[in-house]
From TrEMBL:
The lineage of its organism: Bacteria, Bacillati, Actinomycetota, Actinomycetes, Pseudonocardiales. One of its GO terms (molecular function) is arginine deiminase activity. It comes from Goodfellowiella coeruleoviolacea. Pfam families: DDAH_eukar. One of its GO terms (biological process) is L-arginine deiminase pathway. This is N-Dimethylarginine dimethylaminohydrolase. SUPFAM superfamilies: Pentein (SSF55909).
Amino acid sequence: MTTASVLGSGDEPIALDSAVSLVAPAAPVRVPTQRRYLMCRPTHFTVRYAINPWMDPSQPVDTERAVAQWTELRDTYERLGHTVELIDPQPDLPDMVFAANAGTVIGGRVLGARFRSTERAPEAEFYRRWFVEHGYRDVIMPTRTNEAEGDLVWTGTVLLAGTGFRTDPAAHAEAQEALGVPVISLQLVDPRYYHLDVALFVLDDRAARPLVAYYPEAFSPGSRRVLQRLFPDAVIATEADAACLGLNAVSDGHHVVLPVEATNLAAQLADRGFDPIPVDISEIRKSGGGPKCCTMELRD
């Protein structure tokens, strides 16, 4: 066995096994997988009511700019090789753009949504019809308040289920029965992060051990311990990353589409071998949403 030597703190030579490298290990090679998404053009987008801390009806909203930002988001997915399906926007439903809140699809089974706010309640039926009209046979509508992928995050092995502000805790058991996957409940405690998908997202759902990113302060102490146990290698977001809804991101296992302001998070992801794709979603953020809120994944 060959050895090399370096100088120690006292200038004495220290023998090193030649197999030991002083170079930091390279980031893992990340492999993207093609995805299929459902989105809704924000034709009628505005902020005329407040159902979360981000919404202020007194502030002006530029619908044309929101449409342009959404279009760039859709085009980004398509440039990355993903398929984007569209549902028709409906007048008087300005938040219908947030498709992620309207359904959870795993293995071709669909669990629809039941919104907490009366303003958004009609969206659920339009999305249910879309699924039926597009050949989905297992479409189940919940009896409990359930804001779909807003609070139900599929990791590839378990379904993380948020509660605290929107989704009823009893909806977690209903999701397990409807989708046939194990569910782990997580308690949200900061009203700014009213949905699980603005506090946590999945980076890699195809690995033997899923990888996620999250903001610990959005969760109760017990839920933080659960996350630490489940995901010891998680990417931990800063307060600044969370505050621009940087965790409302979409990953295909390699490319991560996230708000342009989440610069520290983007740097962390690059260090882990991911390719951050920043997008400007600032106008749509006035309603408390980002890339993920606009994107329902169709896992057929």
